Structures are given as C-alpha cells and as structure tokens.
Amino acid sequence: MKIVLMGAPGCGKGTQSPYVQERYGLCHLSTGDMLREAVTRKTVNGLLAKDAMNAGKLVSDDIVFGIVKDSIKNPECRYGYILDGFPRTLKQAQLMDEAGEKVDKVIEFSAPDEVILQRTSGRWIHKASGRTYHEVFRPPQSPGKDDVTGEELYQRKDDRRDVCEKRLEIYKNETRPLAEYFSKLGVYTMINADRTVDEVRKNIAALLDPIAVATGLK
Ligand code: AP5
Ligand code: MG
Predict the structure, then answer these.
(1) Is the CB of 140 under 6 A from ligand 1?
(2) CATH code for the structural domain at 2-112+165-215
(3) Fewer Cβ atoms within 10 A, N terminus or C terminus of the chain?
C-alpha cells in the first residue's frame, strides 16, 4: 500500500503518520525528517539543503527525489510506504511516475491558515520516535519531555512565524496544484484536519482500511 500525506506545514502529517504506520505495517518516509537528519550529519545533501530549509524554501527536486528513491528500497518498506511531505512539486510527482511508483491514495489535510500557524508555533518533537506535542493543544505530561521515554523534546528552527508564513505561501503556490494532478489519476481525497487528532485519525482509517483489505494488509 502506497500512501501520500500532503498538506500545509503543521497540518498534522507527522502526527498521524505513526498511527498509519502501525496500523498497516508501512514505513514512514518524511522527506523533512530525512533532510533534517542529513543536515545534522553534515552529509553532502544536508549541506546543500540547509540554507533552503532554514529559510522555509523547498530543497531541489533532484536531491529530494534521490533520497526517496533510495529509501523506498529499504526492507521495512516491503509492505508499502507513507510519503509524508513528498511529492511537493509537479516535477517530483512526475519523477515518481517515471520511476514506476504509482500511489494508491493521496490524502490532503486541509485547515485554515491561522490554525496552521498556531500549530507550528507551539510544536515540540521527540526526535527518535517522531511523536509530536503542542504547548496548548497536546502538551506532554512533563514540559519538554517525551511521555513514553522521558527524553528531551526539541523545537524546529523553521517553526518561527515568519518562516512558517513563507512555507505556507510556497505550499499554496507549488504543492496545492498537485491536488489536480492526483485527482486526474483518481487517487486524491481532501480531509478536514481542523478537528481533534483522534477524529482525523478515524477519518484516515476509514479511507485506508478498504485499500488495506484489497491489498491483503488487513
Ligand atoms: P517538513 O518537515 O515536511 O515540514 P512541513 O511539510 O512544512 O510540515 P510539518 O512537518 O511542519 O507539519 P506536519 O504536517 O508534519 O505537522 P505535525 O504533525 O508536526 O519539511 C521541512 C522542510 O524540508 C521544507 O520546508 C523544505 O525546505 C524541505 N522539504 C521537505 N520535503 C520536501 C520536498 N518534498 N521537496 C522540497 N523540499 C522539501 O503537527 C504540527 C503541530 O500541530 C504539532 O505540535 C502537533 O502536536 C499539532 N497537531 C497536529 N494535529 C493536530 C490536531 N488535529 N489538533 C491539534 N493539534 C494538532
Ligand atoms: Mg512533519
């Protein structure tokens, strides 16, 4: 089962991905997480991506596609994958198509701009698991600590409000047109992400369960 989660910064892609991953045994490929890892490790891709990411701009299509192409070959992706934040341009979608990677479902998360900006500005993340928290909407049991491991949480450099506004603008200009592209392929659905985490999760499960049954994953 091959799934794309698409949506503006802070709409909840990373929050929902662990549930989808666990429910269907898929691998979770967040291009944002993989690029941040490359920046931390100071790899060639990381050095090339760093400035664009800190400014809220997109990293080049070739770099991002290269990372995804390699990752989907990993054994943990044998039952399929969740692409979180990829493709983000028409070019990236075409590169996947040319590589013969057809996705079963593209789910776009929709929420008003002000909700998006509130979510990114209060976000805290547990690096190892990807679990997300929010100062107001989803606070951890102890401030700054992961509920499960007790480890430190961190905040992203690109979650400053001005950078988030830039990311949102780029989303509208570069990524939203993909809705039409995937609609033509008959795989696109938009969901209301301005609801509780549980409500969004149930909505996603209702969309994906029939595909999981059809592909023998459930
Ligand atoms: P990336 O890391 O993918 O950032 P993004 O797409 O902007 O999305 P976010 O991770 O900010 O948001 P999310 O939807 O995961 O929200 P989350 O679940 O954390 O990309 C970063 C950068 O990398 C890009 O700017 C670009 O430079 C580069 N890049 C990545 N992919 C690329 C590509 N394909 N091409 C080119 N460049 C690329 O939730 C946010 C907060 O809200 C959390 O605090 C959470 O607890 C809370 N929350 C979530 N859901 C709810 C809810 N239902 N109710 C209340 N609170 C909620
Ligand atoms: Mg994310």
Answers:
(1) no
(2) 3.40.50.300
(3) C
Q: Where are the domains of the chain?
A: 2-112+165-215
- Laid out side by side, the sheet with 105-110 consists of 27-30, 81-84, 2-7, 105-110, 188-192
Tell me the CB-side half-sphere exposure of residue 179, using CA atoms within 13 A.
Answer: 16
Q: What pLDDT score was predicted for residue 180?
A: 98
The CA 80 to ligand 1 mean position distance, Å, reads 21
pLDDT digits (tens, 9 = 90+) for 135-193: 999 999 999 999 999 999 999 989 988 999 999 999 999 999 999 999 999 999 999 99
Does residue 6's CB lie within 6 angstroms of at least one atom of ligand 1? no
pLDDT of 216 higher than 90: no
Pick from 119, 126, 133, 202 the residue to mutate for probing ligand 1's pocket: most ligand atoms within 8 Å of its CB.
Answer: 119
Specify burial of residue 40 (Cβ count, 10 A radius: 0-12, 13-18, 19+).
exposed
Dihedrals phi, psi of 78, to nearest 5 degrees: -65, -30
Question: Is 168 a pocket residue for ligand 1 (Cβ < 6 Å)?
Answer: no
The whole-angstrom separation of Cα 52 and Cα 50 is 6
Is the CB of 133 inside a 6 Å radius of any atom of ligand 1? yes
- Residue 218's pLDDT is 77
> What confidence category does residue 130 fall into, taking pLDDT thresholds of 50, 70 and 90?
confident
